[in-house]
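Team,

Forwarding the record for the chain on the shared tracking sheet. I've put the sequence and predicted structure together so nobody has to dig through attachments.
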Amino acid sequence: MDCIVKKLNIFLLVLLMTFLLSVTVEAVKGDKRETKTFSLNNGLDILLISDPDVHRSAAALSIGVGHLHDPVEKQGLAHYLEHMLFLGTKEFPEVGSFKKFLDEHSGGSNAYTGGALTNYFFQVSHEGFDVALDRFSDFFKSPLFDKKYSEREVKAVNNEHQKNKLNDGWRGNFISNQISESGHPLTKFGTGNKDTLSGDNRPALLDFYKKYYSASNMKLALISNMPVQSLIDIAQKHFSGIPRRKVSIPVMPNEYRKPLNGKFRLLKIKTIKDVRSLEVDFPTIRLVEYKESKPATIVGSLIGHEGKGSLLSKLKEEGLVLSLSAGGGSSHPDINSFTISVSLTPKGLDNYERILELIFNYIRMISDHGIEEYTFKENQTMAQINFDWKNPDEGMGFIAGKAALLQDFSLENINTLPFLIKKYDPTAYKALLDTLVLENALVVLSHKNVVTDKVAPYYDAEYSLEMVGGNIFEKINSGSKVSGVFYQEKNNFIPHQLKLLDDKPHLVRQDDVAKVWFMYDNKFKQPKVALVFQIETPKVYRSPKNLELAKLYESAVREGLNEVVYPIKEAGLSYSLSTNKKGVVLTLGGYSERIGDLIELVTKNLKNINIDEQKFNNIKEVMTRGLK
């Protein structure tokens, strides 16, 4: 390690300072974007986005039904319907004609089936948007569901499942859902396969379509370069004809995994890949009732904090984990969870009970301390800043996200509430924290060498489940005092004076090394900055060993800086190190107000790596495992 640091011949090759450009270049003229929300007479809610600078038009239509609503005797039906829907309509009966049209007009389409949502979306050239919408809307007015393609699409669904069978994420999610209460919709096999969809599916398919595919259960989102009024006209023309039927969505039991008494659930899953992970999952409060205060975001920011005194800092100090994340979500308004996930070191795998002890100790510390108002204000401020200076996006992925959000947020709030935190709500924070107790936890330990005694259906995944009480439960739940952890302090790096600056070229450096002129560029209308430094050395690519040492150097620098840089990263700044044939590239960027602090912290540590031997060995072990 030292040899790479000492041998790096560092000098400034390039200093590029420009306002940050996101992947979607329409951000430079985001002030031209207009939005409009309204409802058609058939009950279809619509969000329109007009932007003269978007490159292609796009549309998405979501339906408020998903695989959680599958009939028990036809599991995978909602997913199967998603496949069958695009196979011709009365007006456009030729199968594949929609795809052919999109291909000919620089477009594409896709769809997905979630627990309580099915989403269809496409993008196309502006010139083809009107005709594409005519074809797209007809799928929701008069689909053929042609019998001769039914078997083919069952095979397509089955092939999709066969692919997923080898994915540890799909396997783990299915097994975890099986730990739900008996008969709960979460235990269903949402993807489906040739066995669950055997026989004649047409009666069930038509019944499902008529039950749920109503305009009143749909949400539409469009984005184009058309003026707003033109978008209104085109939406009315193509989507007013979608039938409106009475829809009755089945009630979803909200108590999907009841807490135990003096015990916790320990689920061990044998993985295919060489991974080591620990998840602690809690059923929690109904998050849809707290859209303004977003308690999962606030609590997640504390448990997932990575600075000094944090849970992650303590876990790394003891050599137990490599990373940690925390947050809440829902697969249905009545199915809510909060999850803490950690990536384990070999030591952590052997001592996962110590990790649990530290996790629940930290949660108890936060609960006893209470959520400081400054924690709320910091999250609120950054949410507002990111909203005010966001880079307007485009394309079918973006518009599909909007159509999905329309299922959870009203037309009046769709443009702001999903992104902002408006209310300080200690009662909501406490209600969520009260659910983060050991008896309410499902602890999931995933590794390729765990001992199992069960096999999950459909995925053939091996696992074991036990209810753990007694001394282990008491030790984890003891609440003994742990040194070195404390409630996060105020973040003084949060920007408060963001503004665009007028500037002229001026000399910022002139010496034997370089002569550098600089001027702020307001082209992108963002108070952000991006700097790229090329640290030049021929030694990186001189041998395979040197290349791996350079990558080890990058990881060691990042690890050594993580605690001190984390508050700055939380304030909207970031940095990265990478290797190329010329040497090492240092990239820094984000909101310009505090960029100097980030530059100072990072550059000071490029040649002085501050990690102990244990952390170094953990980094090395990850790299070695990756090479295998």
